[in-house]
Amino acid sequence: MRDTIGGRPYEAKKEGSKFVLSFYPQAKNAKNPDAVLFRLVLTKEELKKLAKIAG
Q1: Cβ-contact 23, 37 below 8 angstroms
Q2: 18-39 residue pLDDT tens
Q3: Which band of pLDDT confidence, cut at 50, 70 and 90, is reported for residue 16?
Q4: What are the residues whose beta carbons fall under 8 Å from the beta carbon of 25, sequence distance 6 or more?
Q5: Secondary structure percentages of the chain, helix, strand, coil, to 5
Q6: At CB < 8 A and 24+ separation, what contacts does 14-19 make?
Q7: Residue 40 pairs with which residues in a beta bridge?
Q8: pTM for the whole structure
Q9: CB-based contact 36:49 (threshold 8 Å)
Q10: Is the dihedral of CA 26, 30, 34, 36 positive or negative?
Q11: Taking the CB of residue 7, how many other CB atoms lie within 10 A of it?
């Protein structure tokens, strides 16, 4: 299921011990709205680093 962060659609899922965040085009009329623009593959420790930044 897609949600948004900062107005950008993303999907998050867990693959094994890693977390995968896939980001999609921001434009509502994007030519290919399902194209992944960039993807982050993070470990649990890396997610903790992000939470620390946000916290």
Answers
A1: yes
A2: 999 999 999 889 999 999 999 9
A3: very high
A4: 9, 32, 33, 35, 37
A5: 20, 40, 40
A6: 15/41, 17/43, 17/44, 18/42, 18/43, 19/43, 19/44, 19/47
A7: 21
A8: 0.84
A9: no
A10: negative
A11: 6
Structure-block tokens of residue 53: 């930044």
Structure tokens at 52: 């620390």
- In the block, tokens 């960039």 appear at 38
Helix (H, G, I), strand (E, B) or coil at 50: helix
* Cβ 6 vs Cβ 21: under 8 Å: no
**Cα–Cα distance, 20 to 38 (Å, whole number):** 11
Q: Which residue has the tokens 């921001």?
A: 26
Structure tokens at 49: 């680093």
End-to-end CA distance of the chain: 25
